[in-house]
Amino acid sequence: MITTLDLVKESRKVKVLDISGGWGIRQRLGGLGIHPGDKIIVKKSAIMRGPILIDIHGNQVALGRGVARRIMVEVEE
Amino acid sequence: MRIALVGQPNSGKSTIFNSVAGYKAITSNFPGKTVKYTLSKVNFLGETFEIVDLPGTYSLTSFDLAEFETRKYLLQGNVDVVINVIDASLLGRSLEFALQLLELNLPLVLCLNMRDEAIRKGITIDIKKLSKILGIPVVLTVAVKGVGIKKLFSTAYKLGGEKEKGRALNYSKDVEKVIKQLSLKMMNKEIVEEFNIPKRLLILKCLENDYYFMKIIEEKDKDLFKEITHFQNQLSETHDRPSDVVISSERHSLSMNIFEEVASVTRPQIKLIDRLDNILMHPYLGYIFLVVILYLFFNLVFNVGKMVEEPLLNYFYRIIPLIGKTISTETLLFSVISGVIQGLAGGIAIVLPYLFPFLFGLAILEDLGYLPRIAFLMDAFLHKIGLHGKAIIPFILGYGCTVPAIMATRILESERDRFITSVLATMIPCAARMTIIFALVAFYISPKAAFAIYILNIMVIALSGRILSRLLPEVTPGMILEIPAYHIPSLKVTLAKTWLRMKEFIFVAWPLLIAGSTILSLLQYFKADMFINNFFSPLTSLLGLPLVVGTTLIFGVLRKELSMLMLIQALGTANVVSVMSTTQIMTFTIFIIFYIPCVATIAVLWREIGSERTLFTIAFTFVLAIILATITRFVY
Fold first, then answer.
1. Range of A47's domain?
2. Looking at the partner chain, which of B63, B248, B478 has a beta carbon nearest the beta carbon of A66?
3. How would you classify residue B12: left for phi > 0, otherwise alpha for psi between -120 and 50, otherwise beta?
């Protein structure tokens, strides 16, 4: 199933397909090791449209909803 | 010889710096606390080095201020050796940054730090192989325990002597081909010489569409600019993604290949502390724990402070009448002596008892790694005032001191966010203002009233945030923040950090305080304080405060805690309730919290947000303070 990262449920594993949005966001996410092809586990989702917490290469990163919405992912069944 | 420490945020650069330079840089468990670089001369292994601790950066693009400054510093040509500090447990990702550093063509040492953490995560690294692939020395360290530091610096020293430079690694064939073609186009170009940086680095930055370089090239050499765009398009067409992603994907896959070659990964050991996030970052429980933790924290500060303040204050105020018996109270000498004693007493009995437990507690929360968790929990709320989660970090630091809080706004990406956060941070009651709230309101009225001030303060800040973000509408890109693993704070580091921050008070503020209280004594002796008090009388009468409060307001701009100590002196008694009503105490405190930031804050604001916006901040807070204090006078 293909969706955006902000809609993925907790403890699901996904693969990054594409990062839309500007140059800045791509650079920053790349710096944290998030590129197309990488595997992400969604660990926590805050209430009230707060950020999500992901695990990327064994490291935890918090992403605001707006940022997560720009990451297209494929959910692994 | 000058050695620069660079690396991604939270990799342990500052810890390494401190372990050789003595405790001079603030270390914490959150990304991006080194906002300026710290330089120190050290004698180590019989040699004198200059060591520079540069801010943590994820890459070398022009994305944010810290990255831009770091790149500029390294390319200035006065660094002999670069040490790239890497969190060994994040080797795969950190290698991408190391590859970029290799492109700088500087002598480079790779420092694999936090080896213990990597072992815990089940990662073992073959450093010989890694060193061979990258063509640079690799040293393992555990900086918090001082393991490997000697070897790191002796390796760096040796490399600096040999001046052996790092060389960039090759990318895939088609990318290398584009690099070569573009390199031919750049031959004999004046502008390329002017940049004075390695050519390969310049080419890669251009292909990455780095704003800084592209803007200059577009202005100065239209032909070259066209050529570059042509190659950018070529790359993005053949790879079906933007050219900057092509380059970063190249580095990424190169890093991943190296990682797989040198590292073996087994099952990580999961410690109890890793499970803390199950409750501290829980969608509901997380907030309950946040409130409980902050409540306990402030309770502790208040109780410790009160325990010490009472007996010390009694002691000091018994001394002055004793002196009055030997020297006549009418003399100039008595004025001077009592002024000095009151200044001393203010520092020891009123400020330090609250300041120490507060800074110590803050240091523990920082080192534990709780601050980024608060950013996660508060993101949704901060969106309501037009900011995002990261802004909470300057705010929390603001409860310690406004100056580092404003400097920490550099971790925010947009200029508008930095401005709004800076203005709001000046209104957060810093440790100096906390001593006023605790020593006046909590002590003479009730702890509940002090708590109410904090709540009111947060509400005012939220409202001001809403107003400011309405005035400056802009869609914030949202939060991207690393949440580091918890570390159990070491007592030594925590105490060193507390001491480093207390030094500010002891050596800068306290002498000022003693001088201030002596000056006030003299003003009173020569009856000159009446002129100042009369000048301020329209304000003091509007707020319903005693006339003598006027002079103290000037001192408050120098240092916030001065206003309270001067108040006690001006009133002529430490028992404030005997001369001021609870309403007056409350009005005075509210006014002091909000009105005009202190001199040190104004200076840092001036540098960070510019003169116009600083003047706006001064006017804004002054008007706000008058409105709030007037309301307090009639409502409380």
1. 2-75
2. B478
3. left
Instruction: Quote the CA–CA distance of B373 and B89 in Å, as a whole number.
Output: 20
Which residues of chain A lie closer than 8 angstroms to B483, CB-CB?
A: 53, 60-62
| Domain count along chain A | 1
Domain that holds residue B131: 2-162
The interface predicted TM-score (ipTM) is 0.93
Q: Give domain status of residue B277, yes or no.
A: no
> What is the chain B residue with the closest CA to A25?
B477
Alpha carbon of A73: minimum distance to chain B alpha carbons (Å): 16
In a domain, B558, yes or no: yes
Here the tokens at position B101 are 């550093």
Q: What CATH number is attached to the domain comprising B8?
A: 3.40.50.300
In-domain check, residue B436: yes
Query: Are residue B430 and residue B566 in the same domain, yes or no?
Result: yes
pTM assigned to the model: 0.84
Say if B58 is an interface residue toward chain A (CB within 8 Å). yes
H/E segment holding residue A30? helix A23-31
CA distances from B207 to A37, B225, B244, B253, B273 (A): 21, 11, 6, 17, 44
Q: Does B632 score more than 80 pLDDT?
A: yes
- The strand ranges marked E within B126-193 are 138-140
Estimate the crossing angle of helix B611-635 against helix B582-594, to 10 degrees: 170
List, for residues B212-233, the tens digit of each pLDDT value: 899 999 998 888 999 999 999 9
At A16-42, the pLDDT tens digits run 998 887 888 888 888 888 988 899 999
Residue B167 inside a domain? The answer is no
Instruction: Say if A58 is an interface residue toward chain B (CB within 8 Å).
Output: yes
Q: In total, how many domains does chain B have?
A: 3
Supply the CATH number for residue B222's domain: 1.10.287.1770
